[in-house]
Amino acid sequence: MARLNLKLLLFLLIAIVSCTLITYIFNCGHPASSHPSFIQRLEEPSLRESRGKFYEELDCSINGMYHISCRKEGREVFIPFSFLEKYYEVYGKLAKSKGHEQFEWSHSYSKVFKPTTPYNASGMFMYFSNYNVEVRDRVKCVSATEGVPVSTQWEASGYYYPVQVAQYGLSHYSKNLSEPPPKRKILEDGNMLTAKWQVPKGAYIKRKYDSAKLTRVLEFHSRDGPGISLRLKQGTDLVLSFDLRFLSANGSLTFFLEDRDRSQIFPVSFTCSSVLVEAHNSSGNYSTIYGMGDCQNWKKFTRDLHIDLVKGHVLSGRGKKLSRTKLRIHHLLLKGNGQLDNLTLASSNHMDMFYSSADWLVRHQDSSGGWPIGVKRKIASGRADLDPGWYSAMGQGQAMSLLMRAFYRSGKPHYLESALKGMQPFSKSSTEGGVRAYFMNQYPWYEEYPTVPPSFVLNGFIYSLIGLYDVVSLAPLNQVGDAQLLFDQGMHSLKKLLPLFDTGSGSVYDLRHFTLGLAPNIARWDYHSTHINQLLLLSTIDSDPILTNVAERWISYMSGKRAAHN
Ligand SMILES: *[C@@H]1O[C@H](CO)[C@@H](O)[C@H](O)[C@H]1NC(C)=O
Ligand SMILES: *[C@@H]1O[C@H](CO)[C@@H](O)[C@H](O)[C@H]1NC(C)=O
Ligand SMILES: *[C@@H]1O[C@H](CO)[C@@H](O)[C@H](O)[C@H]1NC(C)=O
Ligand SMILES: *[C@@H]1O[C@H](CO)[C@@H](O)[C@H](O)[C@H]1NC(C)=O
Ligand SMILES: *[C@@H]1O[C@H](CO)[C@@H](O)[C@H](O)[C@H]1NC(C)=O
Ligand SMILES: *[C@@H]1O[C@H](CO)[C@@H](O)[C@H](O)[C@H]1NC(C)=O
């Protein structure tokens, strides 16, 4: 939501929609009945004009601590919104409504998604179809070797964050279910002779049978020439997938993207190197480079070239303003000696991206069933820090949600096995490298951040419960293992502890005020609405009224309601 520009310190005589706020500060004490007449006066321009000067300057003393400049009109006092906005952390903007300008005030900026159907473990994951994980600023790029995003949230050089990898996969799974089928075009599959490759003198291409892959592939050798190219006529779809391997060490595949406005061309290259992402601009030749790692073996790549280009732009300081609709692929270029198959252009490829995440999780799970997080996590300035290698119950849970969907869709048992192994840290204490803590030695809790003493983060705990529920729902009955028990114990703890997260006007993110003796960590509105969305989801699979009662009360806080005081 666009905030009112602070420079608009316009004493706009903004109708402070609720006189309560004035009452708070000035004790101006208008009886409730005067409220309508106050509104009426504002709507009568003649009244203002007849008075000539319709307001006076007024000094406002804020809690006796400092002064700001206000306005007085009759007995009414007007306080600048730019002040109220910061003082109360509320939101407002000028907007047009039915042809009239009005001021729109809101207490929070976040949204609640009320579920219309019961939660389905093989369906969309919450409202993740609205997520664009790879676009986020804290995602450095999508790695070409791993096919998953690289985070810079807690370490600028970049690292793989299992929570983010799982969210990337779950958002693409959800988009696969929410969006219409993609447009798809195969450009080269080793069979068609329609792809018009331009082969310079000395270079060659041939289509041949690969006896290991049992399919026909395109073999190419550029020798020392400028490379073998393929011009694309339309090229407005920017999601590419291809199977590729190189027989020489220094091959590359480059896509030339054209900005249709400025008719500039931006190459995005994939090379046989360990480079994560680099942007170069030497002698005015700009290029973005991704390393595919070791190129000797067949590997499938699925790339969103818009994302790939924008991440290079961000790296080189050009910013991320590059609209997807303004780009098209002009041509592509093969260099070196290698083989190519299944070169496909599509408007999206959510399932490939989903399986990239699932496969990453399978590859990177350790022998304790965990997905270790390789960066230090500071929770409360020096206290309860987590050293690299920690597990997150949220990471474990979201990985389980993703892997169970991969098992459901593909039927491949290794996804199920990985999800089941992912439960192991739930039975191990945080003090012993697991994620399990107890509240007052009594209620088990699965820790998003397994600190000692525990932090009891609410949203991460609920994500871990959803992961357990997905295992219970989709695993064959005789293989569910501890999932049901862990889920039931967790739900019991949630219902017991939920009231501790209620501040009477919002929710707290964790219980550090109890375990670390710090000030409460109030949840900002998007976390508050996440809490609500999660409770509403759980209420579709557990009818205990505490879930809906708390959710409804917390929803009312978002429009300014507070619990009554004594
Ligand atoms: C759950 O979602 C899947 C995938 O969208 C769908 O095929 C299935 O019918 C859904 N099940 C129920 C009970 O709605
Ligand atoms: C979703 O996946 C199915 C199966 O792979 C595919 O047929 C469908 O086109 C996909 N839809 C989208 C929007 O990705
Ligand atoms: C590359 O550098 C040249 C000047 O050396 C500049 O004009 C051009 O805009 C740069 N290109 C990009 C894509 O940053
Ligand atoms: C820049 O591109 C031009 C045209 O493709 C080429 O002739 C020149 O050698 C390139 N310069 C560098 C430094 O790569
Ligand atoms: C690849 O390396 C070989 C040997 O080092 C060299 O002759 C050739 O020019 C290189 N090819 C490309 C496309 O860079
Ligand atoms: C190309 O795709 C087909 C169909 O999915 C697959 O059988 C074949 O192995 C793929 N080619 C390569 C080289 O992986």
UniProtKB/TrEMBL annotation:
It is found in: Endomembrane system; Membrane. Its main location: membrane. Residues 1-19 form the signal peptide. GO terms for cellular component: Golgi apparatus. Pathway: Glycan metabolism; heparan sulfate biosynthesis; Glycan metabolism; heparin biosynthesis. It comes from the Eukaryota. Keywords: Isomerase, Membrane, Signal, Signal-anchor, Transmembrane, Transmembrane helix. It is a single-pass membrane protein; Single-pass type II membrane protein. It catalyses: [heparosan-N-sulfate](n) = [heparan-N-sulfate](n). The keyword Protein transport does not apply. Residues 215-337 form the D-glucuronyl C5-epimerase beta-sandwich domain. It is an enzyme of class 5 (isomerase). Residues 365-556 form the D-glucuronyl C5-epimerase C-terminal domain. The keyword Protein biosynthesis does not apply. Its EC number is 5.1.3.17. GO terms for molecular function: heparosan-N-sulfate-glucuronate 5-epimerase activity. GO terms for biological process: heparan sulfate proteoglycan biosynthetic process; heparin proteoglycan biosynthetic process. Belongs to the D-glucuronyl C5-epimerase family. This is heparosan-N-sulfate-glucuronate 5-epimerase. It comes from Daphnia galeata. The lineage of its organism: Eukaryota, Metazoa, Ecdysozoa, Arthropoda, Crustacea.
